[in-house]
Amino acid sequence: MRTLRVLLVDDHDGFINAAMRHFRKVEWLDIAGTAGNGLEAIERSEALRPDAILMDLAMPEMGGLQATRLIKAQDEPPYIVIASHFDDAEHREHAMRAGADGFVSKLSYLQEVMPILERLAQGEAS
To answer: Rounded to whole angstroms, what are the CA distances from 16 to 8, 9, 52, 80, 126?
Structure first.
């Protein structure tokens, strides 16, 4: 399994810190960096070139959908998973239309995101 470089994007420090505490225990995950909004996510995606971005849907300044559209326009864009408390068909559809590769509920974040990251690290998802 290859090491997967991940950028965490969320405007709540508590959420980022909780995710990082878990991800640091996973030997094949490397947290490339964090961002607090979509503008920072775009900048850090270009600078850090992560394999995957785990991005909040609703953030100040620029939300996850607009940031996803702009990041997916970059050369060799990363795999992007949108995370949201708003877990319904409409929000999932908006995320997919914006170019997201996946969508997870924040209510079951780790249970949903870990299998996605494992598949990426094993080269099974593109």
So the answer is: 7, 8, 15, 16, 25
Each residue's pLDDT tens digit, 60-119 = 999 999 999 999 999 999 999 999 998 889 999 999 999 999 999 999 999 999 999 999
Q: How many CB atoms lie within 10 A of CB 66?
A: 16
The C-alpha atoms of residue 106 and residue 78 are separated, in whole angstroms, by: 21
38 in Cβ contact with 62 (< 8 Å)? yes
pTM recorded for the entire structure: 0.94
Q: Specify whether the CB–CB gap between 38 and 9 falls below 8 A.
A: yes
Q: What Cα–Cα distance (Å) separates residue 11 from each residue in 16, 35, 89?
A: 8, 8, 23
